[in-house]
């Protein structure tokens, strides 16, 4: 592994403005189990919660790859410009809990050609989400 330089990226943080802040926090913190790393309240009602989502990666896909993933997971094109994907240990259970907490099911958990079980949801806050469970050893 290469030695990190002082200018190396140390964290990927996705910043999302949500209309119903409390609902979005409850969904990601309580339903999906992302622990609070930092919660700051500021003047004028400004508020931010930073949740620990484990290891972060940046997945860059061309249009053909996005179309392939949509076809496999959902059966039709549905992806916006960005989609959040979270690895879970139980895609069926996590999907069920997410729907019970207010997420809209776009596609049931589906086994993919790359050997994962992927579900697609629309979350409170309007983020398209893939919950995926790696099945291969």
TrEMBL record:
SUPFAM superfamilies: Glyoxalase/Bleomycin resistance protein/Dihydroxybiphenyl dioxygenase. It comes from the Bacteria. It holds the Pfam family Glyoxalase. Residues 10-134 form the VOC domain. This is VOC domain-containing protein.
């Amino acid at each position: 592994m290469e030695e990190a330089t002082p200018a190396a990226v140390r964290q990927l943080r996705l910043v999302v403005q949500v209309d119903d802040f409390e609902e979005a926090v409850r969904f990601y913190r309580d339903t999906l189990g992302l622990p609070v790393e930092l919660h700051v309240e500021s003047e004028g009602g400004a508020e931010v919660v930073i949740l620990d989502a484990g290891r972060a990666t940046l997945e860059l896909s061309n249009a053909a790859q996005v179309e392939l993933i949509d076809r496999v997971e959902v059966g039709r094109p549905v992806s916006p410009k960005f989609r959040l994907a979270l690895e879970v240990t139980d895609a069926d259970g996590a999907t069920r809990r997410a729907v019970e907490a207010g997420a809209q099911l776009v596609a049931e958990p589906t086994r993919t050609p790359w050997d994962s079980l992927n579900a697609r949801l629309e979350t409170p806050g309007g983020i398209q989400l893939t919950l995926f469970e790696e099945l291969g050893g």
